Amino acid sequence: MKKISAPLSKTDAVSLETGERILLSGVIYTARDAAHKRLIALVKQGKPLPFPIEGAIIYYTGPTPAPPGKIIGTAGPTTSYRMDAYASSLLEMGQLGMIGKGTRSPEVIANMVKYSAVYFAAIGGGAFVSKHITSVEIIAYEDLGPEAIRKLTVLDLPVIVAINSKGRNIYEEGPKEYLSHGVSENL
């Protein structure tokens, strides 16, 4: 598996191939629908974002409360298309990575290609992901509870390149490859 660091460099982002398994380490940020709406409101007002967007990776999750003795609860991915209305603006500002589940809109994919960004699929479920988080800090919108923006430090977080910076999409290519091996579409 390839190891990469966050924030992402453009060189790393464009080197990734669809389906490639990655171990991600470094700083990433959490944000879901409500936080994205507030981020875009800041952009429209010309105000700074609560974290550096250049090369940033945003993980679409709303972690559960931390149980006793833990720094975070489960941190599974949320369905990414819910952030599609906001993603293109953040990509234009320099965001290079997203982590979630499910495919993305044609507009987001086109902007990923335009700005050399990559979309990762989280694997293993929320409890598994949590084992790779070494620190957590709420940095914005604490009133949103689980949807507050958190700064996470991750160590060897396993992800899969779902859509690369060239627009190759595992959600389209995967089923085609599966069916090319003589498997019936009726399954």
Lay out the secondary structure.
Elements: E1 2-6, H1 10-15, E2 21-30, H2 33-45, E3 57-59, H3 84-92, E4 97-100, H4 106-115, E5 118-122, H5 125-130, E6 133-140, E7 149-163, H6 170-179
Parallel strand pairs: 1-2, 2-3, 3-4, 4-5
Antiparallel strand pairs: 2-7, 5-7, 6-7
Short note summarizing the structure:
This protein has 187 residues and is an alpha/beta fold. The chain is 29% helix and 27% strand.
Please give a structural write-up.
Helix 3 (84-92) runs parallel beside helix 4. The longest helix is centred in the N-terminal third of the chain and has 13 residues, at 33-45. The chain has six helices and seven strands. It has one domain (2-179): fumarase, CATH 3.20.130. The chain is an alpha/beta fold. 29% of the residues lie in helices and 27% in strands. The model has no long low-confidence stretch (mean pLDDT 93). A five-stranded mixed beta barrel has the order 2-3-4-5-7.
CATH topology descriptor: fumarase
The CATH homologous superfamily corresponds to Fe-S hydro-lyase, tartrate dehydratase beta-type, catalytic domain
Tell me the span between the first and last alpha carbons.
Answer: 31 Å
Percent strand: 25-35%
User: What's the architecture in CATH terms?
Assistant: Alpha-Beta Barrel
Query: How are the strands of the biggest sheet laid out side by side?
Result: 2-3-4-5-7
**Main β sheet profile:** 5 strands, mixed, barrel
The average pLDDT is 93
Described by the principal axes of the CA atoms, the overall outline is globular
Structural class based on helices, strands and sheet pairing? alpha/beta
Rg from alpha-carbon coordinates: 16 Å
What would CATH call the class? Alpha Beta
Number of domains: 1
